[in-house]
Amino acid sequence: VPLAAVAFLLATRRNYRPAQLTRWIIGLLALMALEMVNPLQGGLAVGLSGGLFYIAPMLWYFIGRQVGSPALVTRLGKAVIAIAILAALYGLYQTFFGFNYAERLWLQLKETYASLNVGGVIRAFSFFTSPSEYSAFLSLGIVLLWAACLRGHRLALIPIVLLGVALFLESVRGAIVGSLGTCVILWALQ
User: Fold this and answer.
1) What is the mean pLDDT of the chain?
2) CA 167, CA 164: separation in Å to the nearest integer?
3) Is 152 in a helix, a strand, or coil?
4) What does the pLDDT look like over 40-70, one tens digit per residue?
5) Is residue 178 scored above 90 in pLDDT?
6) 17-32 pLDDT tens trace
7) How many helices and strands, by DSSP H and E, does the chain display?
8) Which residues lie closer than 8 Å to 55 by C-beta, 6 or more apart?
9) CA nearest 159: which of 138, 136, 173?
10) In CA terms, which of 2, 16, 90, 103 is 20 to 30 Å from 41?
């Protein structure tokens, strides 16, 4: 993946004036590359594997700068909101009506999956593979809808109620607090 990202960047290189954030990220990447050869960390293999986990994801900033646009981000946000609404509807179905046959079979295979079974109750996970992914996606949908509401789209409040109920019934405190905190910060910064 890092080689593909670098090849993509070299192939689609645009001449643009680097922003201050770009300079800071380049500096951070240089510092990370220097840390990869730090002899006190446990060897070069440790440094290289750390580089895969820290340097490679940072390259996506540059790819996003190359191919991203406000229109693309708007379309991506709308897609995330639509998926979050569908996920909430299916998660609420699982909460109130139970799981379908295939999901019950999958749950039997995952008897020891601790995050699914809380207090003897199997939590909904919609069409995701875990309740934590489901709750994170609901949180993201709430924050995006709140941002739309702050920009004047008052109808965005309607799906927030649906996603909020689904998130509340999922009972993941971290996702609830994170969503509320992020929405408060967005409101304060507007």
Assistant:
1) 87
2) 5
3) coil
4) 877 888 888 888 888 888 888 888 887 788 8
5) yes
6) 678 888 899 899 899 8
7) 8, 2
8) 2, 29, 32, 33, 36
9) 138
10) 2
Residue corresponding to tokens 């910064």 = 189
Does this model's pTM top 0.85? My answer is: no
Q: Token pair for residue 45?
A: 């293999």
CA 48 to chain centre: 25
SS (H, E, C) 36-68: HCCHHHCCHHHHHHHHHHHHHHHHHHHHHHHHC
Asked whether 20 and 27 are in contact (CB, 8 A), the reply is no
Q: Kindly report the backbone phi and psi dihedral angles of residue 128, in degrees, each rounded to the nearest multiple of 5, phi listed first.
A: -95, 175
Start-to-end C-alpha separation, the chain = 37
Q: Where are the alpha helices (DSSP H) in 98-172?
A: 101-109, 131-150, 157-170
Spatial distance between the Cα atoms of 119 and 67, rounded to a whole number of angstroms: 46
